[in-house]
Queue: 4 jobs
Job 1
Amino acid sequence: MSKYTRTAEVLTLSSTTATTHGARNHARAQAGTRAETQPTLPAGDAVDTPAGVAAADMVWDEIIGAGGYAVHLLPRGARLRLLDLEGDACAALMIHRADATAERLNVADTMKVQWQAYLGPGMVLLSDMGRVMASILDDTSARHDALCGASVTAGNARRYGDGTVYGPSPAARDRLLLALAKHGLTRRDLPPTINLFKGVRVNGDGALTFEGDPIPGAGVTLRAEMDLLVSVANCPHRLDARKAYAATPLRLTAWRGPLTPPGDHMRNGTPEVLRAFQNAEDLIGGAS
Amino acid sequence: MSSRVIHDEVVAARAPWSGVVRAGQTLRIVDLAGNQAADCILYNAHDPDERYSASDTIAEQGNIFLTTGTRLLSSEGNVLMVITDDTCGRHDTIGGACSQESNTLRYGHHAKHQHACVENFLTTHAPRGMGKRDLVSNINWFMNVPVEEDGTLGIVDGISAPGLYVDLLAEMDTLVAISNCPQINNPCNGFDPTAIRLIITESVTA
């Protein structure tokens, strides 16, 4: 029998996926495979979760590698821990108000209203509607960037020889655009974003200094102060001058938590931040 | 080579303005009375989803201040306009535009009903079918926002003066949206909003 004879018998013998049943069996046999970067579902099955967090309260656990991205909805009160597992991640972060995405992170207001260019523990992320979106509860990195935004296709093409989303060195902006697209959002919905775990400092003459030395195990924990759509990409910072496309795995872990109480120290940290909380609470008819 | 004036207009204190500056034309913004912040966002006139990107502009030049030589980049990495002359010295692009909402944070809820730059941008955008999603971190011509060593930043007394100007050469057909800032609670306008003058010119070969 010629191997080119197209009979069902021959095809079945030469391949396990020549029939619908075979292909189904082949696909189902992949279940249980673990990749270095993937989500854990249900999130309650995640291991090595933050102390005191019950499995039933887990809402998200996912590791994204170099060039990867993820997008997730978080309910008000949820905590999101971003963990720079090996110390060389760069988390490009964008947040939208989940139920009205025209309201979104505004880096200019975040800096101006808090009279501070450098994000760190005790600071909040503000929307363009004068409301607190998230509070930075914990931060063992304190080296972030609200000035330079996401890396871009052309910049990555220049530095790494390729900036395509399907290549080895995608740009953070393109990854965030894909994250947004999955929720019906477009480039109109992507203003300047922030970078966590890679820092930029401003000299007296306005010039920038990049701070990128690895801090293994550094973590940032955010508290959602409204229902949020969170988009994260893990791509090298655009001021990272290394020739190699270097970004180590980033773990995202989120769990339900109590709403911010009126006496919360961050809520009452500054008069500006207190009013940002009041404006956010006004959305849902008062403080928790 | 000489130049001829295409457009010459005084924009009243507190008012918005928008218009297209064609590739090769130069827009001069004149601070008539001194220390008048002119909030500004640029768009590709043919595809306004491509708009000014403060972060790209800052990252590419490695400096937060805008002045002569600065290439004002778009969200797609293209050059919208280039600053070809600047008698003020430097301009801001990290302080953002004032809004009724951010005014409540910075000054208190008594400021909620005061006119603000976001109101101006939304007003001038509406007839073009543009809106809130088209508002991004902007340029503040003639506004002074230093950053201290510890990261403290703020809008402080201006370094501009009557008659100082900035020239912007359009590298593509650029929709320029301006809010002549109505803010009265900080020194960006010297607590007294005043008019600015816009002059668009193009070169004429003899």
Job 2
Amino acid sequence: MKTLWMTVLGVCLYLPAWLQAALTIEITQGIEGAVPIAVVPFDTANSRQAPRENVAEIIASDLARSGRFAPVPEQNLIAYPAETSQVRFQDWRTLGVENLVIGKVETAADNQYRVQFRLFDVLRGRQITGYSMPATSEQLRYVAHRISDIIYEALTGEPGAFATHIAYVISESKNGKKEYQLQLADSDGYNPRTLLTSRQPLMSPSWSPDGRKLAYVSFEKKGRAAIFVQAIHTGKREEIASFTGINGAPSWSPDGRSMALTLSRDGNPEIYSLRLSDKKLKRLTNGAAIDTEPVWAPDGKSIVFTSDRGGSPQLYRMPAQGGRAQRLTFEGNYNASADFSPDGKNLTLVHGNGGRYQIAVLDLDSRLLRVLTDGRLDESPSFAPNGSMIIYATETGYRGVLAAVSSDGRFRQQFSLREGNVREPVWSPFVDRK
Amino acid sequence: MRFLQTVAVMLVFGWLAACSSTGDKQTGDVAVVEDRTGETGVDTSAGGATTSALGGYSDLTIESLTDPNSPMSQRVIYFEFDSSDVAEQDREFVVAHAAILAANPDLKVSIEGHGDERGSREYNIGLGEKRAQSVRQIMEIHGVLPAQMTTVSYGEEKPAVEGHDESAWSMNRRVELVYVAY
């Protein structure tokens, strides 16, 4: 196969004005039962230049977005301690909060800050955890998300997934012409960056397990589908599949060495695995039906996929090297687009019933299917790397927008952009944490 | 080529207008077939589905492809939800195109499959491919050389109609025949 290394011609070095406004988040459902927490604005008295980010606000917003915490609104705070010695636990008990976060942002050197924070158990009147972290001005948002991760883990026992990313596709019409963009943003929708722009459709972004690359489908070559792998930081990319017919649904194996994908080069949409080192192809399915949307189980031993071999699209599971497939879904006339929870125990999927398409979770042990959303055309669900939330595509006013739902269905929120159709969100894995 | 595309686009829009004016989703497909011949100015009685094969498509010359008054200037075949079966009434139409291709081995066609927006995007790519292959198989049986045909699926990525109800969806579940190297 022809291997092409090239820098991405389509990368935009500027962002259109409408994209500079970040995705904003509206919480649409269910904050009851969230644990009250106070996040006091961080003291910036010892910052030579005022930090350009409000670290406490980012942390409070992260914690609120998780659905597990209800930060006290800033105007209701009763004191602004920055040191342990300034904390009067009795006051915070009166306010009814269980936990308190305080901190400081100080200048360490030119464009170099030191961010300190402490998390307290208000009832017991003691510190749970506290860190001091360096950050450049540009890293302040990231450091705030890392602090959110630490707080979330200390209080829930599960790792936080705030310092992660989402990738997605946007389409919009410009002067009557369609334009497609592959974008990347922080998990809260901030810092959107365009990785690729094309006049032809872009589809199916998929993260490499190390979070450094994205595979995707692009129709840029004379309107024909091809699969590319693009390094996020360098923008370099490689074309890995451009066979006759479909080149679709790329999905990385958990060890990063292979990719499952859908090809129709042998006549029918079938699932193959492609060894990335030598581009060796192995066909995994064989039949007259549509077999597509492969996803690897986190242990790498099996692959779940969509097939209409039983008459309607349903999910099946087969060994990763191919072989006998077992049907997993029986409820409703449409179950497709699966993604594994990080622990491998659940699948999230698109469930169609009575003409509506909604996001559901299937427990692989009990085979119980739980519908989590109530949209009309919800699609492309993707688990957060800690399994707590599922991001998906929905619509408001016939415009594609992103939304997230907690994996227990209790809490839902919507990301809104001012223009464009946003779709196919994929949540990154945990990235390297130095 | 550009002229062909323009004609095809005009016809699709004319067709759409006719379809949306029927207002009745249940009978929409039937209305489309009737209105198509009306739009192109061909006597509807000649297009009756009861006549023998190709009965409605008598003018099978390469020129008919660019003649807006000929039903052969039509390029689109429509499908039922989650189906890649070519409907009986469209089979003749595909066979008529196959006859022109078979008689003109230099002529090439790109068979482009599409789906509506419902369900998953990659499954719709699969469905579009199956639709294109259904059309391809009919053409191959009727003498079109494999080298004359390519198939491509765009799934739900290139809708003909930007709408969100059955009247739009029924126009988007389609195969388009795009003649190349004319």
Job 3
Amino acid sequence: MPGNCEATIVLAGDLHARPAGALSVAAAKFASAVLLLAGGKQANARSVLAVMQLGASNGQEVTVRATGPDAREAVDAMIGILAEATRAGD
Amino acid sequence: MAPKVGIVLVSHSAALARGAAELAGQVSGSGVTIGTAGGTEDGRIGTSIDKVQRALALADGGAGVVILPDLGSSVLTVRALLADSDDLPAHVVMADAPFVEGAVAAAVAAAGGGDVQAVLEAAQEARHARKL
């Protein structure tokens, strides 16, 4: 039975191209479907162009929602990248 | 670790091909080989079938290669190579995609372990990506 997991983070910087790439590369390693939601838009985390199109910026809330057998691990990984990458400011 | 799908960027301009490869490499992180075939053999604007062939050989890690052409005769050059050469890596396909967005999307999909079909689809989905 697939699990669901969701977590929200407030970005400490803008979501630039490199972290967007890191999110998509990481999302591809999980069996779960992973969605990113920000500012009323949503993106399949595996699609780097969709993630960049969110235009998520400093101070904005981003919600990670995963559905599947490794939903919790997927959400933890996404939140970790979002926290790390936007703090580093690249 | 399983080999990753390689990418080849074919442009009329060597600088454009190299720049797009640099960007796609940065966004996707390390681990994906991106070959470039930009300009003519003597450094002018144009395309070279021999350059494409060399870039293919470089990018081929055994999992296949997705080729992205920029405009017009880049497509024809790649088509000619794919049609005529009997010395190609297995699973070589050309993507119908915008050059920069397609290169970035393809490289990220390859870095995530996608197969040739998945990388091709990622590149081609870039046709629908809006900037604004």
Job 4
Amino acid sequence: MPNDAWGIGASLLRREDERHLNGRGEFVSDIKLPGTMEVAFVRSPHAHARIRSIVKPSDAAGRVFTAADLPRIQPIRIVTQAAGAKSPSWTPLATDKVRYVGEAIAACIAPSRAEAEDLAAAVTVDFEVLDAVVDAPRDLRGSRHLVHESWGDNLYSERVFEGGDIEAAARAAAITVRREYRMRRQSGAPLEGRAVLAHRDHRLDEIVVYASTQTPHTVRVALGEFLGLDLRRLRVVAPDIGGGFGPKARLYPEEIILAALALELDHPLRWVEDRGEHLLTSAHTRDHHYRVTAYADGQGRILGVDAEIVVDAGAYGLWPQGPYQEAAMAARNLPGPYAIPHYRARAATVATNKAPLGPYRGVGRPGACFAIERTIDEVARAVGRDPVEVRMLNMVRPEQMPFTTVGGMRFDNGDYPQSVRLCAELLDLPAVRARQQRGEPDGRLIGIGFASFAEQTAHGAAEFVSRGASIVPGFESCTARILPDGSAVLMVGIQSHGQGLETTLSQIAHHELGIDPARIAVRHGDTESTAFGFGTFASRSMVMSGGAVARASRLLRDKLCQIGAHLLQCNVAEARCTDGVVRGPQGSVTIAEIARVAHLRMDGLPPGVDPLLDATATYEPAVGTGVFSYATHGAVVAVDPETGFVELLDFAVAEDCGTMVNPMIVEGQIRGGVVQGIGTALYEEIPYDERGQPLAGTLADYLLPGAAEMPAIKIGHLHTPATATEYGMKGMGEGGAVAPPAAIANAVRDALTALGNSGAEVNETPITPQRAMAAISKARGIGSA
Amino acid sequence: MTAIRLRLNGSDIADEVPPRLSLADYLRERRNLTGTHLGCEHGVCGACTILVDGEPARACLMLAVGCDEREVETIEGFAGDPTMAALRDSFHRQHGLQCGFCTPGMLIAAHDLIRRGEAGSEHAIRAGLAGNICRCTGYTNIVAAIAEAAASLAGGPRDAE
């Protein structure tokens, strides 16, 4: 097999780049269909209200559509197998009640977006405003107000996770550390918002829906279900996607509404989300609240962790998985990469009058990592040891692998403590400590902090079944086709939303077949041209789709050898396919020559061998519970004790994701994830007021990390190939975003120990100057804000 | 409708536009120049950065009528421009883009930094990119790409890959 500048392990430059560098990428809003009309939505200005009436302008017949005008649309319903979980149905256009600011009420159609917005402004909705539920920890059991009246409380679900004997840990403990942590609500904020373009193709008798989605195949399934259409009458296309990061891995009301309108009307329809709509209505994320009690011995060895987790999940669950996975994932990941013997977590998912919560890079893990990693540092302080030592003391050691944590995660392999050592090296820990001792001329305080995690990736059916998931995304698919000239097409059920799969999947096929990657097309994102697949999320794409490409390529390789052997007049066992050529004991024949026979000269085929070079394969890793990447992140900060401003001076990642197919792309994913994690740590927040009004509606209020505030991010690699996947790959797309909030909070904590006494800590993200100042003032005895 | 005349990517154009049509919508919807991307439509993200009379501008914050008698250049232009050619090459080789949505605005901002001689250090490049948000790359490779293009245009040695 080739081991060259193009195959597995090569930093092959991306084939996606040329079109984007020339402004020729094709995002949904770039697609032009003649006669397209624009859609703008009437949205709720209230967090919680009954709709008394909707009055359309008198001249709006056929231009304003409410739920009553689109009776075909069924309510969105999440089917969950999780015990005791409640699942509200959700009408894509509100009927009797609205439950968050931004909920869609009517769709308005005009030749331009501006005119559609004029029309929306002319629709009058009479509301009876109700009190809003906005405080999940306070209102989960029974507030005076209920988001969904029939429930009797505001709980989507509540589960207790237990392992070992937490009471025994409490009795044996030399020290007890109690803390409360909060990771506030934020947006995924890909630079391209959502967008939908839908039209009816009469020739093919189908509705074509272009959508900025990470999951075209499952969106198609949902559209079929909620519109009552055969799937053969629905085609969903995700063209270039301007970032997804999780929020685009869910079905949205707008997709259903646009498809329904396309069925009714004789022209294409387009809705392009603006940034205000994105911040109001695209899946929000995080919004975790933790109460953690850790029991430890006098050395800092953790005996047990007792936790209460509350996730504020907003008003509805997003299809397909609903609101449940966030809290469950947080609970199962809270024990982190540590060999903690005793554990109990009560995890509640709470309905509030806020936008629905959905996945975002890392899903439940950044919150869980924040809670356990902050706790580790406080345990270390309580026993007077360095957090780095206590972190490694508690970590699962390589010789313990495979190791199942008390949270139920089965780690496969790796040297976790080594990631801590490597990260400390990358940041030159002794030099930072020396600088800290010297003090800064400007009076700022230097701090260094670390956070470690293990990330479940590429989990198969077993994992999703255990979660009670409504659909089980345990495989991916590939149809590999060699064309009559020897060039090839990979048609994959996955979707690439910017991570370069058109490049990396061609590297896999090149590895198996020897065909130049430049002669291999990768087609994804179109339900018409690809076999069913679930799409890109859960750090699964390279392992799952790469595995499917490998298997399909090998099926083709076998057939190439069969035909090649016949042409070379040798035994199949003697034929080998390498470097784009099938070789026998004497002579060789190119894939192009074989492809010509397989298509155009079937008289050259061996007896019993069918024409065509076309193979479809699916792939699920050999272990369904996931393969685990792991990393330690480290941050060096300077905190201004007079303003609370945190400057990030340095950041390092020491990670292990097994075999890297394209190290350049792996490092790009890590750095991009880290900067999103820095956004969570320091900048990004969508606060809601007591009436349920969101307070960040523009990018002037919602701060995204910019180049000027970001350090260059250092990366060090460890290499422990997985045994359960093709080539030893592990998923790694999300990990970058998991640990920065914890590492930075630990660094800020480290800096603020200089304030004396017990110092100050900030246990809430984002660590804004206001929050840091409040902690500093409290430590100085000036009173807290 | 208001009559406008402009020079767009080197061609003279006469057109009629509604007074409230934004320049970005004009370029995208009427001229099919869809490389000018809209990420926020309120002047923060920089994805719609273009050149107006040679200076970077937010196409989302200008009206089409505001570019009457002016020269507009979008990412689809820059034919034969050595700075843009160097930037395209260095963004490709340094992996300075992922989803590609910020890329046209980023390239035009970078082009302006190099033109003004403000791409001489990592610090200067980072400060100069304050008006352009990338959500994918974490900026490290964008900064490296701009530094490399600036160095190559100045005749200096290229950074090792």
